[in-house]
Structures are given as C-alpha cells and as structure tokens.
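Re: the request from the purification team.
They wanted to know what the chain is likely to look like in 3D before they choose a buffer screen. I agreed to run a prediction and write the result into the notebook, where they can find it.
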Amino acid sequence: MVQQQADAAGIVGFIGAGRLARALSQALQRAQVPVAFVASRQAAHAQAVAGQLPGCAAVDAQTVAARCDLVFMTVPDAAIAPATDALVWHAGQSVVHCSGATEVAVLQAARRAGAQIGGFHPMQAFGADTQAALDSLPGCTVAIEAAAPALAAVLQALAQRLGCVGLSLPPGARVRYHASGGYASQHVHVLLAEAVRLWQSWGATEEQALAALLPLLRGTLKSLARSGVADGMPGPISRGDAGTVRAHRQALQALDPDMRQLYDQLSRRGVALASRAGRLTDAQAEALQAVLEPLPEPPRQ
C-alpha cells in the first residue's frame, strides 16, 4: 500500500535548489521516488542538484509547474507566495511547500487553478553538508498538512519511504510547531553560548568548554529519551536545592545581570515543570520560588 501511494506521486519536481532541495531530492531518489525536474532562479544551482539525480533535468520553473504531478516548493519562505503566484498551474496536480512556519494558504494560486496544496516539512536541520543531512533524515518527523485525503496519503507514504515519521498537522498550527523546533535546536545554541561565556570568565576557551559540556548534553538527551521531559530533568531545581540556586544567581548577577535574569526565567519554568511531575514537595517549590524573587534594583546615583 505504501509503495502504491508513493507511486501515485507521479512525476516529481522541485522549484528551488537550496540545501533542503539537495537533501530531500537525493533522499527521494534513494527511496526509489525519482525526481524528474529541478528549477531555480540560479540556473547553476538547479544544474548542480539535477546533476546528482539520474534522469533529472534542470529546467525553468514554469516547465516544472506544467509537467509535474507533484511539485515541491523549496524556495525561501518569503518567496513561496510570489513564486507560486507567478506560475500557471493546472488541475489534478499537487503543489507542496516545505516550510515549517508558512501556512499552506500561501499556495492559493495553485489551488485556484485546481491543484491540491499541502505542506511537507522535515523537522531536521539542513546544513551545507548534504551527506550529513541525508544521514540525519531517517527517523525524523515530517509535518504533513493537506486538506485533500489523496494528497495526505501520498505525502504520508513518501515520509515512510524516507524512513521518517509522518505527523498530520492541523491548519493554523504551523508557526507553533516550527517555534517548538527552535527550542530544541537554535535555542540550545544560545544556552550553550551562555555556558561558554561562563567558562571564558575564568580564562577557559570555547573549545575547552564544549569538550566538557557536550558530553553533559549528550547524557541529558539520553535521559530525556528514556524518562521524558520532567522525570528526566537533572540539576538543583529538580531536587529542590534552593541553596545552590541562590549561589548560581549571586555569581551570575556579579558577572552579568541579564544572564541572571535569563537564568531566573528558565528556573521558574523548571520549578513549575518539576512540581507538576511530583518531583518537589510544596515546601521545596516555595523555597525555590522565594530564592527566585527579583533582586532589588541598585540605588540610583
């Protein structure tokens, strides 16, 4: 059944030849879903992607729109609507963008022409290393949105063929879904940057800090996978250690009050999380909240 639904994709093409298009087109090809055409405003980019795909041709965008049954719009988010509006579509085809945060409604020009529209967003980072992206794709979640059941079934089948987990996303949820990925990806970089700053405050290097912190992060991820968000949470808040939290705040306040404020915001959320999971007694939670009360403003000069 999955094979039949994936085959129902018909002739597949890409408009946009960036990092996501490079990885996704090669992944589809490896999954025996051939990509026939690739287009890009930069002809050299389309040729580079097509050159990695046997039987694939670099063409203009209108040729993709005219000749493909399933078109992946992999242009930058801000360009999806203008690119879609500029092309002539036809009934019976499917037009799908691969943005996490952009609503499917931006493809209305294709829908008005009789095409089915949808979203297909792998929740994975796509960097300059295409092989790394291909290696990380299996097992990741693909957010799928399509009002037409036939298109939803095809996209779910393609996700399975890629070794991914298809997630049916309801209309209007894309921005929240995409923001959640920021917490698990880009915000981790920000938090580690803060940790590196602390190491640098006594003269250590970023390399030394990461050598110590990344094993800690890997252990944390394993604990998350085994025990879940709340039960797997380590650290002084999860064990009700108000004294250590107080010492942390004092040290951070002396170094950078803004860093201490960020620590406070995260810690308050941590207290609430640990409390909901039954990790803290009422007395422990109250003690932590008392320690996390805003510090008095310094006197004005």
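For the purification team: The first helix runs from residue 2 to 7.
Please add any questions underneath this entry.
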